[in-house]
Write a structure and sequence with these properties.
Elements: H1 2-11, H2 13-27, H3 38-57, H4 63-75, H5 79-99, H6 106-150, E1 154-157, E2 160-166, H7 171-188, E3 192-199, H8 205-220, E4 224-228, H9 232-241, E5 250-251, H10 254-264, H11 272-287
Parallel strand pairs: 2-3, 3-4, 4-5
Antiparallel strand pairs: 1-2
């Protein structure tokens, strides 16, 4: 029976394909593919139905379907396009098989339904797994990229490094900040580390606690931590929360923090023009 139905379906693929294309095209008026060009949509549909019949004809071989799904993933087509298309194919195929029989009892209908399910279900499972694996891989790569960018430690001068923080700081990110901070201080032999929170939108008790922990850890390994980028509203929040930041220097801007770092490392900014004027003045004074 399954083989006989398979032969009927494959031999009448043109009729079933037309019914399938009509239904899928009709649904397009209100679904997620309405912004795709007509030419691309129709060519993709035609390839989709051909791949489905190829899989059935090859008795469940999903190699072509895998390649097709991979291309759709790379092009950004949603998984629902494939699952909806397969559900539509199942319904259209069952309707066609039933239309070929003058009389179908409940038992026969159940058998037909089960056979078509056995054709379609493995394809759906395979594609869902493939989509899930692809998206998980993509999300994993994005997470790693964000982690690398979320807590960078930048050496700006001998013994001085800067860690600019942008966005919300949660517990997981705070742990990464701590690890990068301690590792970077040792790697760059930093005497001073400036933690710039200019890009942190909210500083609450938890965020402040994480920053204090990081600064304390830096102090314990022999370096000084300067917190910079404290805006007036953040300063007010810190005061209202009763958070003690007295153990390490704070500055309102990175510029002021950098000047403080130079002082700590026994350096200063010198205006070369002023130096030249001073030298000329001293020379003229010596001639008097």
């Amino acid at each position: 029976m399954p083989e006989a139905l398979r032969r009927i379906v494959v031999e009448n693929s043109d009729v079933i394909s037309k019914s399938w294309l009509d239904e899928v095209t009709e649904k397009r008026k209100s679904d997620y593919t309405s912004n795709i060009s007509d030419a691309l949509y129709h060519s993709t549909n035609q390839e989709f139905i051909n791949v489905i019949f190829s899989s059935i004809n090859r008795r469940g071989d999903t190699a072509e379907m895998d390649d097709f799904a991979e291309r759709l993933i790379n092009l950004g087509w949603p998984l629902s396009y494939i699952t909806d298309g397969l559900q539509t194919f199942r319904r259209v195929t069952i309707d066609f098989i039933l239309s070929q029989s003058d009389k179908v009892d409940t038992y026969e209908f159940s058998r037909i339904l089960k056979i078509v399910e056995d054709w379609v279900e493995p394809i759906i499972n395979q594609l869902v797994n493939q989509y899930s694996g692809s998206w998980e891989h993509t999300v994993s790569l994005q997470r790693l990229a964000l982690q690398e960018l979320s807590a960078p430690l930048i050496p700006v001068m001998d013994n001085i490094t800067v860690m600019p923080l942008i966005g919300t700081i949660d517990t997981e990110r705070a742990k990464l900040i701590m690890e990068n901070l301690l590792e970077g201080v040792m790697k760059h032999n930093s005497e001073v580390v400036l933690i710039d929170i200019t890009g942190v939108p909210v500083v609450d008790t938890m965020v402040a606690h994480h920053i204090i922990q990081a600064a304390e850890a830096v102090r314990l390994i022999g370096s000084t931590c300067i917190l910079v980028g404290i805006r007036p509203e953040i300063a007010q929040t810190i005061v209202n929360l009763g958070i003690d930041l007295s153990k390490f220097p704070t500055k309102s801007s990175l510029r002021k923090g950098f000047k403080k770092a130079l002082t700590i490392t026994n350096r200063e900014i010198v205006d070369l023009n002023d130096s030249k004027d001073e030298e000329i003045t001293n020379m003229l004074d010596s001639l008097k």
